[in-house]
Amino acid sequence: MTTQWRTTLGLLLAATAAQAQLPPLPPGAPQGSYVSTCSNVKVSGNTLSATCLRANQTPNATTLTLPCTKGLVENLNGVLTCVPYTPPPPSPPPQGGIRPAPAGSYTQTCVGPIISYDEVLRALCANKAGVKAVSELKMPCNGSIENLDGKLTCVTAKAPTPPPPTPAPPVKPPPVTPPPVTPPPPKPKQFPGELMPTTGGAILLPGGYPAKCVPEKACQFTIVGAVELRAAERGGYVFDGWIGACEGRKEPFCVLDKPAKVGATFVTKKSLNKSFTVALLPTQNGAIFGPAEFKTKCVPEKACEVVVPGPVELRAVTRQGFLFAGWVGACEAVKEPVCLVDRSVKVGAKFAAGKPPPPPKSFPVTLLPAVNGVILRPGEVKSNCVPEKGCEIVVAGSEELRAVPRPGYVFRSWVGACEDKKEPVCVVDRPVKVGASFVSTTKPK
After folding, report:
1. Which parts of this chain are annotated as the region Disordered (predicted)?
2. Structural domain span for residue 335
């Protein structure tokens, strides 16, 4: 560092201290710009500690290991940092000595401004965060000197704004051309469709069955654009699935928008209720409930076999002071204490000691009026509500609702909270309004 630069920097630091009236540093504390934004400066052994302001003006406790021999101590966003310092190049021979700095707006946020022998303006300037550091500007400046975020900058005057251009003479608007006539949209394409023979039901189009079609025989018809088909069940039969273009769909509805061949299968309700044997394994600290035969024929601690006429729902019921810990056998993958079996199986349940969970919260569910069908709760064969009037029920935790059509009708869709469900089953777990719609399977006259 040259004698000239030492003199300049000394003047800057002296001017800063005089203006800010900073408290004296403790013995052993190095000089640096950090003193303007840090307080509670202490030196303990070779550790410098202080509370420094971050850029957002919040305080931060920070330390630095001394000595800082190759730089200056600065506050970088609330952290004491030893910043490497490279001294400026040697100054040219003196040309008049140190002299006062010119006026400018920079003097409001910079202290100790002077012009040194090398015609460089130096001052201690604060950035937007309030951190002060030495800034330099080569003179002369043919403009105004400003402090731009801690950096001395020569801002030249803006060129005068040129006068607005002379407006062009008015131009006559072009003649108005009537808008082109939009042609009518093209007619939807027509393509052939074929219904396969069906038994136990019929495939209906919107508005009824296609003219001249008999369910038991194949039939050709014309599709315009797109058409929705419905698989309608006859009495004693239920829809079992689609054949052909709609194969794979579970719902009794299918949309055709291209040439296709489609059919549907129906099965008798009796074929769905084949009897089978359920073997209950011995259980401790609980029981497995199902049809009434389970209560009269089975003892939880002993193995038991019961013949059931069709699919049956098993429930694992705990004794007081015990919790359900999982199924054994056929229902092992089921996590809930309820399991549906539809074939001959062996099944048991495990129970563990513990506090039972708190009872589920109850909430109201509004059943909207329904025509040609009814909404049933688990275990209900007949609704406690009048379907045409609707009613409000109380549900604890969650509950599965079933939309059951009357004879001669099929489920079409849910209304309200379950309207996005395609199947006639919906689980409710919060206060909602829900209803169901049903359509006739009878061919319109």
Report:
1. 156-191
2. 276-353
Residues 375 and 424 in one domain: yes
Residue 24 shares a structural domain with residue 69: yes
Alpha-carbon distance 418 to 413, whole Å? 9
What separation in angstroms does the CA of 419 have from each of 324, 366, 414, 432?
A: 34, 14, 4, 12
Q: 390-429: b or e for each residue (b if 16 or more CB lie within 10 Å)?
A: beebebeeebebbbbbeeebbbbbbbebbeebeebebebe
When divided into structural domains, the chain yields a total of 4
pTM above 0.90, yes or no: no
Are 308 and 431 members of one domain? Answer: no
Region for residue 321 given its phi and psi (left: phi exceeds 0; alpha: psi -120 to 50; beta: otherwise):
left
Partners of residue 404 on adjacent β-strands = 374
What is the three-class DSSP state of 1?
A: coil
Q: Could you give the percent of the chain with pLDDT greater than 90?
A: 20
The C-alpha angle with vertex 247 and arms to 243 and 249, in degrees rounded to 5, equals 125
Length of the chain measured in residues: 445
Based on the domain organization, do 57 and 134 belong to the same domain?
Answer: yes
Asked whether residue 51 falls in the same domain as residue 152, the answer is: yes
Instruction: Locate all alpha helices (DSSP H) within 91-237, ordered by sequence.
Output: none
Give the residue from 256, 271, 286 where a domain finishes: 271
Please tell me whether residues 247 and 394 are part of one structural domain.
no
Q: How is residue 268 written in tokens?
A: 């008798």
Residue 287: what residue type? A
What does the pLDDT read at residue 293? Answer: 56
